[in-house]
# Entry
Amino acid sequence: MLGMIATLSLVLFALPASAAWNDTYKGYATYTGSGYSGGAVLLDPIPANMEITALNPAQMNYGGVKAALAGAYLEVQGPKGKTVVYVTDLYPDGASGALDLSPNAFAKIGEVSKGKVDIQWKVVKAPISGNFSYRIKEGSSRWWAAIQVRNHKYPVMKLEVQKNGSWVSLPKMDYNHFVGEQLGNKTLQVRITDIRGKVVTDTIPALPESGTSNAYIVAGHTQFPN
# Structure
């Protein structure tokens, strides 16, 4: 019996603690020219000179939330130096901690000729100003809609809409949109939670009566606190 207890204690002790949102991750960086358009998390258009990265699945889906770190900013330290990059794509084959950087970002943290270097990185407050904006995906209407939050200081983990006096959480998809059905044709009251647990409320203009042929952007009225 004592042996079983001792074995169980060892197993429990070995279980990893949940990562904090601002933990420092260790891994490796490679580089690629992709990610500026057609990225997995649909953040186009992205300026051609922006420093960007694709992120491995383990951290992209932080906390069990799909595309949790889409649109996040990461401070990356390599053997040559440090820089901040914007998460615009998924690095599907990347191990935990791995980033696939744009060439301009890789050049700041490592020797390009090496092609792969050891790094460490963490999520930081986005170097942005202004309020949220919202991308309403093509095909959205009062009956079905996919809503993406953009221009956020910290990664977005949760989006809720008010329906019949209650807050209803919308699931986040791999393509970095929150999807809901029967959202109606009136102004949407939304509640948004960031990776730190900070919560803000906002409004989104009424959705179209029938499905849109193109995605469109609407301005928000608030932002996460510092």
